[in-house]
Amino acid sequence: MAIDDAGAWWVGSEPADILQFLAAYTHSEGGYLASTFRPVRCSCGSDRFKLERAREVTRRICAACSSSKFICRTAEGWEEAEAEEGVEYYSCVACQTQEANVVVGFAAYEEYPEIDGVKWFYVGVRCAECGILGCFNDGKVGWGPAAEVHDSV
User: Residue 117's Cα: distance from chain center in Å?
Assistant: First the structure.
């Protein structure tokens, strides 16, 4: 893993760099600290996705097989958010590529360790072409058990 943070954007050399980026991002932004991370891989084996968001709902579409899944949400949540806010599509800020590697970071209820749930999620991305790292979406989770939330990516 090698991240170049000398320029305007952090650039990762591999998908695993998203974990380090999300850890630093959640620490510096004053939000909830991500402490658990799940790399996203399609059942076909691909780790490249096109992403869409409507409010706190993110849909991932596999670049290889076109299967889609919502991250920590359901289709009902998507339909409501899409109708109210519209849809935004991931596009790299530098090269405009629409495919990214994805890692989801989760923040737990650190102040209440007895709660087996997830407070917040972050959809970390790495441009599949030029490697620019970022956070495409985030939002409240507020449910558990944590293992079920972690598996909902």
Answer: 18
Find the Cα–Cα–Cα–Cα dihedral 142, 43, 26, 9, rounded to 10°. -150
* pTM for the full predicted model: 0.91
Q: Parse the chain into domains and list their residue ranges.
A: 10-150
Q: 37 forms bridges with which residues in the sheet?
A: 105
Instruction: Give the helix ranges, DSSP H, for the chain.
Output: 17-28, 75-85, 146-150
Residue 102 zone, left/alpha/beta (φ > 0; ψ -120 to 50; rest): beta
Q: Structure tokens of 71? A: 């991250």
Nearest to 105 by CA among 18, 152, 36: 36
Q: Note the pLDDT tens digit of each residue in 11-20.
A: 999 999 999 9
Report the distance separating Cα 66 and Cα 134, nearest Å. 23
Q: Helix or strand or coil: residue 73? A: coil
Name the token pair of 112: 């209440």
Residue 7: DSSP 8-state: S
Distance in angstroms (rounded) separating the CA atoms of residues 110 and 141: 14
d(CA 84, CA 106): 26
